[in-house]
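FW: tagging you since you asked about this chain on Friday. Here's the raw sequence from the shared folder, copied in full. Didn't touch anything.
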Amino acid sequence: MKRIGTIALTALAPVSWGSTYAVATELLPPDRPLFTGVMRALPAGLLLTALARTLPTGAWWWKSAVLGTLNIGAFFPLLFLTAYRLPGGVAAVLGSAGPLFVAGLAALLLGERASLRTVLTAVVAALGVSMVVLTAQARLDGIGIAAGLVSSASMATGTVMTKRWGRPEGVGPLALTGWQLTAGGLVVVPVAALVEGAPPALDGKAFLGYGYLMLINTGIAYWLWFRGIGRLSATSVTLLGPLSPLTAAVIGWAALGQSLTPVQLLGMAVAFTATVVGQLPPRRPQPFSSAEHVRRNISMDLGNAGVRR
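HL: got it, structure written out here
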């Protein structure tokens, strides 16, 4: 039950991220994705760090910078570049490749050997997401595809390295999340200033939208995500990722008046089922039956006595 509770709480992170598109299109200034990235990450990081009342020490200064760059500082700009160069559906499919990246990196860096079930689950989840978000009019762009794959690889690497490095002794996930969001936000600041210029004027709706993105969509969501990484396997956590585009599709239908076709509904069922299967614990070796146990003991005794069979 404890594991199920951890999975459920961790799943709230990608569910929250699925609301980003609706909030951005309905409440935020248009065409300012990098500024939005800064407003999501930096204030949330500073707030969580202040609440944790703990700063990095020693090697954790550069480790936090590396993790913050992978999970936030590089991921956000690449994600936004993908969104600009590709339709949202194609970008979502590229993002759903994240579990495959994590499975490979976890095997290499964590010794978490990917089972056939894990690989198949990741592939089926990506197939389900593609059924939900891809359209016949989807156009392809080389730079956008490259940015989407690199953004997925960046987040996947950050997830695996967060698992590999763990946390300093006595430091909780709140502080670690604050350090990463602060470092990642600081990386995005100069990029946003160079590309987008001065911050836009904000109205009441924008303050409401940025407040939601900062507190719920980023601060709490990333805290739950990194907390889950500390308690679950890296592949298990990342296989929750398809919940994000599925949530976006549901919000688009329920709140934005978008329709869902039978193929999309089938894709949602496929992706959700794959996500659930991805959370099943690995199979344990079956214990020997009593007869098998007796037979092995007899064989060992004969072997010890020097009797050849």
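FW: The mean pLDDT is 85.
HL: agreed, and DSSP finds 15 helices and no strands in the chain.
FW: great, closing this out.
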